[in-house]
Design a protein that fits this description.
alpha/beta; Elongation Factor Tu (Ef-tu), domain 3; Rossmann fold; 2 domains; six-stranded parallel sheet; binds flavin-adenine dinucleotide; binds NADP nicotinamide-adenine-dinucleotide phosphate
Length: about 280
């Protein structure tokens, strides 16, 4: 099975308030498609970027997986996939999202307040997990925008620190104000000073602490390796890429040209990806 998958967007469904909304489970029993959740709080980082924390009776998940969140909007249930930001052992559940211009769901999610109800898919989905990533010395986690969240969930578990000698987290954003979750990243730096490096990219303004530009260009010109103090090669490196599909595509091409391969279950390689749209 390919580890990079197409957009599993949840189609807009007719909401039947009194209907039992179920799916057939793999053992044939009916499992709920949606369970009710309750908002704990929302955090507004910028005009566009928000985190939503909520409780819901979801099934256990692996760090790197996503759930689906839905609201009933007029007579439709509108659901979309969101990566968990919390580690599997942590509660409340948390997602980090960007308000998309004219986006049907995100423009409603930002209006939620503590105590409001939302629908959550109880079954986790996705293969963007460390169990799919082969052994290596160095783990490179490359994110754009809100895809930072999926890596925070993974980094809050023990597994990456036990498996990799060095871990590089890259967060690429347009503007410095979008470099959120600094407290968690600083905590990871304090806890793993020799093992962990965080490399911010800011593409649409000049700031002295970040690389200015795009990830693929900075791999091609060697500046990412220089900043990380590590070389990129098929023997030592594993890459996880998540977020903007253009970044995933362009970075994959650059890494392929450097001798790395896509990671597939039948044919393990070094590049594991997840696209957000
Ligand atoms: C596996 C998976 C996991 C995802 N996890 C997250 C997540 O953790 N956080 C998150 O914000 N989104 C995530 N998404 C995207 C999310 O599902 C929605 O598409 C998004 O929140 C917009 O919803 P919408 O209904 O407002 O607009 P939509 O109609 O769904 O989207 C409209 C357009 O907005 C743009 N867009 C969508 N998502 C993003 C994004 N994250 N950043 C920048 N532009 C975007 C695309 O151009 C898209 O075509 C994920 C998608 C997938 C497939
Ligand atoms: N971020 C905002 O302030 C803002 C404001 C209004 C609306 N939006 C909307 O939000 C969505 C975008 O959100 P976003 O800012 O989180 O994400 P984004 O457009 O995915 O940008 C995040 C980072 O990814 C980079 N990138 C884009 N394409 C790339 C590619 N092919 N290869 C490598 N890097 C690439 C961007 O660089 P570049 O800067 O070079 O593209 C930027 O540094 C859009 O729908 C947009 O209309 C965002």
């Amino acid at each position: 099975m390919a580890l990079y998958h197409t957009n599993p967007r949840v189609d807009i469904q007719r909401a039947h308030p009194n209907a039992i909304d179920t799916l057939s489970g793999y053992r044939g029993e009916h499992v709920a498609r949606w369970v009710e959740g309750q908002v704990i709080n929302t955090q507004r980082w910028t005009d566009q970027l928000y985190s939503l924390r909520f409780d819901a009776p979801v099934e256990p998940f692996s760090a790197g997986q996503f759930t689906k969140v839905a609201l009933d909007i007029e007579s439709d249930r509108v659901g979309r996939p969101y990566s968990y930001v919390n580690a599997p052992s942590e509660r409340p559940l948390e997602i980090y999202f960007i308000r998309v211009p004219n986006g049907p769901l995100t423009n409603r999610l930002i209006e939620l307040q503590a105590g409001d109800k939302l629908w959550v898919s109880p079954q986790p989905s996705g293969f963007f997990t460390l169990s799919e990533v082969p052994a290596a010395e160095h783990l490179w986690m490359l994110s754009t925008g809100t895809a930072l969240g999926v890596f925070l969930s993974i980094l809050k578990t023990d597994e990456p620190w036990q498996r990799f000698e060095k871990i590089v987290l890259v967060h690429a954003v347009r503007k410095a104000e979008e470099l959120n979750y600094a407290a968690i990243i600083e905590r990871l730096q304090r806890e793993h000073p020799e093992q962990f490096s965080f490399i911010p990219f800011v593409s649409r303004e000049q700031v002295d602490f970040a690389l200015c530009g795009r990830i693929p260009a900075m791999i091609e010109n060697g500046r990412l390796e220089e900043r990380a103090g590590l070389s990129i090669n098929a023997d030592q490196s594993q890459f996880m890429l998540c977020g903007n599909p253009g970044m995933v595509k362009d970075t994959t091409e650059v890494l392929l040209s450097r001798g790395l391969q896509r990671n597939r279950r039948r044919e393990p390689g070094q590049i594991t990806t997840e696209k957000y749209w």
